[in-house]
Amino acid sequence: MTRELTDAIDHFIEQTQKQPIDWESKPAPGKWSNKEIIGHLCDSAQINLQRFVRCTFEENFKLIYEQNEWVAAQHYQDMNVDDLLQLWRLLNLQITRVLDNYPTDRWQAKCDTSKKETDLHTVEWLAQDYLVHLQHHLNQIRM
In this structure, which topology does domain 2-15+33-140 adopt according to CATH? Predict the structure, then answer.
C-alpha cells in the first residue's frame, strides 16, 4: 500500500511540473480550488496520521474533522502552491514511514471515524481508504 501511495504522489508531482495547472480558480461557488483540494488532502493526511499513530497503543477512540471548516481555517487558497505541495508530500512520506514500520499485531486495531453513530474501522481499512480517497481527489484536479 505504501508503494502505491508514494507512486501516486511522485506521479502527481511530476505531472504538475509538466502541465500547467490553474491552482486558484474555483469551478463553482462553494467548490474548492485545486489548491484547496491539496489542502484538504493535507488535512486528511494529518488526521489519518494521528489515527495510525494512536492506533498503535489505543483502540476505539473517536477522531474526526470538519473538512470544509478546516480548509477554510487553514487558508490554503492564500498559500504558496510550492509550499503547499511540499507540505502534502512530506505528510504523506511520514504516513508511509509509519505504515512501513507498523506493528503487525495492530493492523486490526480500530478507531471511530463517524460524526454521529459509532463507526469503527481497522488500521488496515483506514490505510486502504486513505489511498482511495487521495487518488479520488488527485483525479479531480484539472490539469
Answer: Four Helix Bundle (Hemerythrin (Met), subunit A) (1.20.120)
